[in-house]
Amino acid sequence: MFAVPKFTIYDDQPVPEGVFDWRDSRDEIFDRYYEAQDLLYLGDIDRARTIVKKIVDEDPHFIHGFRLLGDLELERGKFQQALKHHKKAVEIGEKLIPDDFNGKIRWGFTENQPFLTALNTYGQDLLDQGKFEEAVPLFERILNYNPEDNQGIRLLIGDLYFVTGDTGKAVKRPTRRTLTTHPTSTATACYSSAAATTAGRPSFSARESSPTSTFLTCFAASCLSLNTRSVTIPTLKRPKRLTPISIPCQINGPTIPKPLTC
After folding, report:
1. Which stretches of the chain are assigned E, i.e. beta strand?
2. How much is the pTM?
3. Residue 6 to residue 21: CA distance in whole angstroms
């Protein structure tokens, strides 16, 4: 068994910095984790699951293990099992962070990356369920922890504010840059990913190829590609109050000769 990780707080600057301390070396565990990750990309799901299950049995605090186990279940179409493992990965990190901590958990410290990645993955699960309002505070937490935003959350959250009706915050955040620089390719990626879903649930492979391939990006991409005033995408699940959806938007971009109203 491995020692329980700690969360170390450095308060020698105006904003406290938090860093996860994994204590015992987990190099051998990481070697097996990377092997399982390679097997996932090669499509050998069963062998990958066997490896990861053994990892989390040996080290129940290994955040990356539970996240990868969730990804494997997602690939198998077991969405509820994937959700369970992804949530567990988040909870492992949350239990180590003091309730009154109000500082930064920066991506630049590699020890923090498993937790920040787990938060992002769980947020994607919420989007896949159409739980946009629940996803907002989670993605806001990631930005508060890591304002440098190495994960590109600010490009997603602008769209998320948009579809949840918080236009005040939406106008202060950029939407996906690719929508203005490469609108056609973005639309193609969205629709390809949507076609790869089963009952609106994207597989891990589909999510990897287009990380925000849920309704959010598809809506904006559809505006650009279809040049219509309202867009309805019935293939992806979302709350009834957003079905159908008609949102006026004004999109400007360097490759678009004039503002496009959709």
Report:
1. 6-10, 17-21, 250-251, 260-261
2. 0.71
3. 5
Minimum mean pLDDT range among 15-24, 53-62, 203-212: 203-212
Which helix (H) or strand (E) covers residue 162, if one does?
Answer: helix 153-163
Query: Do 160 and 216 form a contact (C-beta atoms < 8 A)?
Result: yes
Long-range CB contacts (< 8 A, 24+ apart) of 237-241? 237/128, 237/129, 237/130, 237/199, 237/200, 237/201, 238/130, 238/132, 239/130, 239/132
Identify the CA nearest to 119 among candidates 133, 101, 105, 129: 105
Pick from 197, 184, 161, 202: nearest CA to 74: 202
Whole-number Cα distances in Å, 250 to 58, 162, 227, 259, 260: 53, 12, 11, 7, 6
- C-alpha 52 chain-centroid distance: 21
The mean-pLDDT minimum among 155-169, 205-219, 247-261 falls in 247-261
Alpha-helical runs (H) found in 175-257: 178-181, 183-195, 204-209, 215-226
CA distance 210 to 205: 9
The vertex-183 CA angle with 181 and 189, nearest 5°, equals 120
Whole-angstrom distance between the N-terminal and C-terminal Cα of the chain? 57
Contacts made by residues 173-179, CB under 8 angstroms, sequence distance 24+: 175/220, 176/212, 176/217, 176/220, 179/217, 179/220, 179/221, 179/224, 179/251, 179/253
Cβ-contact 204, 40 below 8 angstroms: yes
What percentage of the chain carries pLDDT values higher than 70? 65
